[in-house]
Amino acid sequence: MTRRGRQDPFRNPILIGAITILITVVAVYLAYNANNGLPFVPTYNLNVDVPNASGLIASDSVLIGGTRVGYVGSISNAQTSDGTLYAVVHVKLDKSIEPLPADSTDLVRPVSPLGLEYLQLERGHSRQTLGPGASIPMTQTQLPVQIDDIFKMFNAPTRAASRENLNEFGDAFASRGTDLNDAFSQLQPLVGHLLAVTRNLNAAQTRFAQLFPSLEQSAHEVAPVAGPDAGLFVGLDETFTPLSNVTPALQAAIVGGPPALETATRDLPAQAQFIDDTTELFRRFHPAFVNLANASVQLAPAIAAGIPAVKRAPQLDNRLVATLSAVERFAADSRTVPGLVLLTQTATTLEPTLAFIEPAQTTCNYLTLFFRNLESALSESDVIGSFLRIGILALPQLPGSEAGPSSAPANGPPASAIPGLTGITRTLVDDSFLHSNPYPNTDAPGQTPECEAGNEHYIKGRQVIGNDPGNQGLITEKTKRSLP
């Protein structure tokens, strides 16, 4: 190939134009993203915790001493342990200022009244430093009042009230020029003596300089009880507002007060003995009232059931007439008295028996438990009738055991005396001792005060016939009446 046949690439206008366009695009891109940092340039990244971003946006500047040292990369939110939200400003700083002292502070400041903001950092003096990715806590953040916050004070209600005030002040001063001149002329004596008055106030003898510090101290002392004092006035308002609605009655009570006091002065000494007797009466009634309170659980259902019964009492009264007539005929019958005599003798005969049986129910609750258990035993049923579930327990054949004929009550031997026993068989053999109490104590007269039936302790490894050793106590399962 000859020299003439080769072409110089830099003399190709198309290639030169393409390179020029590419360089221009890269320059525009870098210029457009200059605020967000240049590519391939390392940065010193920190997090700044602020209560709120306060108008900061990504690409806003970060300044130290008025010099731009970085920019805001992004803003995210976070949450404290108590649920309070705050903003985290992720800043990208020049590596030349790395590292910053740990006590460095930050401040969000406006660029202009138009609402633009920037983040100002103030270098601290601590020996500890902030490494890459560290955070400046909110305790080191300052958020001054922003201009837009000041303008937010002038909302629609405030603007309307300001216009109303200007109108009212205008109406107040309209055509008042002469009156104001007269007022100012009358102020001349006051102004003339004002210098002497201020000298007296500023004199050392008046101690005027201590007045406001003393007022401040008084306010500090009153501040802790300001809330209760405010509540006191609220309570007084709640008290006196109803009283203001009954003013005539209060006036009448005040008018009648002196005569009532005179009557009380005269009569109360005579009533002292009556009051003493009444006090003694209620003192003696106190045990009865205590018992009445304990019985209120039973009395309340009785009263609830008695109210409907009392309402139907008039109907009962009409029917009682015939009943009382029948009772009258019964009393006049010659056979009544001999029958009552026989009934009295029967009750007298049964009294010892009933006294012996009574504790079985009143103390041990056995009668109620018997019927409750009987009802529970017959509670399962089918279409044919009620049935009682039973289970067969195969007992081992031992001397005197229930598994076969015996010549004496079962009394062992224990399983340890029989080799080769295991599992449930060993347990059944260990229980091959007769325990029988055919006549348990029920707190009856002459017996040990205990509810023995159902409370006997199983004594393992020995025969027990008769009452269980020791006192089993007076505790049985309580039952309660089921109300409809």
Unreliable stretches (pLDDT < 50, length at least 5) are none
Distance between the termini: 122 Å
* Gyration radius, in Å: 53 Å
Order of strands, widest sheet: 9-1-4-3-2-7-6-10
The amount of helix comes to 40-55%
Shape: flat
The pLDDT mean sits at: 82
Count of runs of 4 or more consecutive helical residues: 13
Verbal overview:
The strands form three sheets. The protein has an eight-stranded mixed sheet with strand order 9-1-4-3-2-7-6-10, with no helix packed on it. It is α/β, with parallel strands linked by helices and 484 residues long. The protein is flat and about 135 Å long. It contains 13 helices and twelve strands. The longest helix is centred in the middle third of the chain and has 48 residues, at 247-294. Among the domains are: 27-146, no CATH class; 156-208, no CATH class. A hairpin with a 2-residue loop joins β2 and β3. The model has no long low-confidence stretch (mean pLDDT 82). Helices cover 48% and strands 12% of the residues.
